[in-house]
């Protein structure tokens, strides 16, 4: 079929649905629902067999849903309605939820049901849950609904007009800041974490620090530090620790509330955001290879199981600043001093990496200089992985990855990817040539022709699609919470294989052969020359694209490369890149 995806943004779920429907042989186009009101004309131009809305903040116009079959993905079970479905589920502490595919109708979320799939609600942030359990359930529901529609005999089920049997399922209002606000004197750590997780990554929880209003983003429990409720206690890895009524929490990021007429604000690491406002606080930086059992929350941690080392990292939004890249490189080097034969890199769930940290770059006094520092820091990390010859390295890609984050994974000997992950192995939507040794690792894995196509098409790739292309070596078909355990089992088996020792021995000979023919330094120098030229040119599209991405500027139109009319369209032009930047560079967390 020709399926048209109508979405408010080309976010993570829309990208996943796009990639997986294409995997199944459908022709798929995207139209963004923009304020100009031209959606009905766009739909008529596509003449789709089916309109599908994976993430839509506004109603589908009546002239569209009366003329075309339109299915809407709602992140809640049958009977739940309203714009803050997932927020309420976390805010009220539900342990199970679901996703429903509905027929578009005059009343929001009230149409007939084509599919509904349940899912668990682990104690994780909303954006993590949305990209994990919710996305898995949504994909299953979408595929079921599409199959039912294609069969032509299925009759969707009407919702109960008398209301759901479960009184918790009802039409709920927008979850505003009055209900999200934290009472530091009364709220327990558990309550504070629930409020923070329900607001991640949008809209954040509005709070007051040093006489100013800030949005708090993210939250992790602290099990040792204590203080007066509301007091700032310490810093760690760019985060601040704040006391609750019975404990404390770590808050990784802040965003200053924008005043009327003031420039836009955006999320930054908490310590960086507060700057000189922050009084001297104890720095609780753990050792380079911190054990979570001894040091509590941190964004980098390490553990060993037999001869397998696990270097885990989890950075907000998958972005990696200069400082984060350097800390991860230090940890990697120390991990390579441990007596292991296999070293696994990656977090337990959610983002693997999206490359350089555009928000930190935008906030820098000299964004060009910070861009240069950041790209060199991540290149240093990738080089360290590429030149490791005394053990096998495995990139465990639990969640989405983009741009330099994909290339970081490709530096490893093997790439194991969770079945629900989406990869964006390209840079051009940010106006960049790219670095991280991609001109070596990407063609080496997929061939030059496919590498060129991936870079020019700038479209998302599913885990299964990446496996077929050779981007990844193994697809791990597990739920988000089960991925890390399965990776551990597979890594132990890899370490025990008789052939592993021979593979390790062969690594140094192969690297020596490569260095004698085409030294890695040459790839890096050529890539960085192109990047330096872009960074140092104030008129280069990258600078405007970065600002648009950081400030979440909506595109002026749907880029043509996303909206082919029942066929594959051309690669995006420079103008399309500009229009696409806020939504297409990295998978977005908003729903």
Automatic annotation (TrEMBL):
Q: Where is this region: Disordered?
A: 553-591
Q: Which InterPro entries match?
A: ClpP/crotonase-like_dom_sf, Enoyl-CoA_hydra/iso, Formyl_trans_C, Formyl_transf_N_sf, Formyl_transferase-like_C_sf, HoxX-like, NiFe-hyd_mat_HypX/HoxX
Tell me any Pfam family this protein matches.
Answer: Formyl_trans_C
Q: Which Gene3D superfamilies match?
A: 2-enoyl-CoA Hydratase, Chain A, domain 1, 3.40.50.12230
Domain Formyl transferase C-terminal, by residue range, is: 179-256
**GO molecular function (one):** catalytic activity
The organism's place on the tree of life at top rank: Bacteria
Q: What is this protein called?
A: Hydrogenase maturation protein
Q: Which organism is it from?
A: Streptomyces griseoruber
